[in-house]
Amino acid sequence: MNSQSEQKHRFGKGPFILPQIIRFADSLAARAITPGDTVIDATMGNGHDTVKLAQWVGPEGLVHAFDIQAQALRKTQERLQEQGLFERCRLHLCGHQMMRDKVNTEVSVVLFNLGYLPGQDKSVTTEVGTTLIAIEEGLALLKESGVLIVVVYPGHEQGRFEQAALDRWISKVDTGLYRSLRYQFENTAAPAPYILAVEKLKTR
Ligand code: SAH
Predict the structure, then answer these.
(1) For residue 110, with 0-12 CB atoms within 10 Å meaning exposed, 13-18 middle and 19 or more buried, which class applies?
(2) Is 50 in the pocket of ligand 1 (CB under 6 A)?
(3) What is the reported pLDDT for 2?
């Protein structure tokens, strides 16, 4: 290792060997998507994930994105329009627990980025009851080799409830139908966000 860029890679701000949480989630989603697929962004927020998913599904694909805040839809729509991606997205102003009412095809990715929007009203956060319902709906919509990805934020009160419930849920996922994993950094000062991901092996 002698060039400066190699040194930066090793000791600077990344890219790291162990990818940051969002990069790891991105890599799982990108691996699961074939251009033309339909996918779900269950928590649109500011629309960053919606944009990435829209790029990966391509012009023939479709992204269904959900949020309960009108402001999230506005921001996401703007972001998509700036990039010419709006046509391949359907933005739903409703809870992700309704996803089976809105999506009637199989999907290759369901992505949840839980919690509240950084810098916004922290009282508007995903909640354990509806999150669990939505995850079951998402699993039902997944096609074979599709993946459901959940980014969990245990650093706030609702997040701790979600953490407890989701850790129980993932430990009971049917091993005949799914593979699952957890991805989390260990030596952190505060409880770190982490990923739970489930890959569907076969539909019933
Ligand atoms: N914690 C993440 C961002 C999460 S944004 C980060 O730090 O980057 C989570 C989004 O989920 C918010 O925009 C919120 O409005 C939305 N949300 C909350 N409950 C929801 C529900 N039932 N269905 C869909 N979206 C919901």
Answers:
(1) buried
(2) no
(3) 45
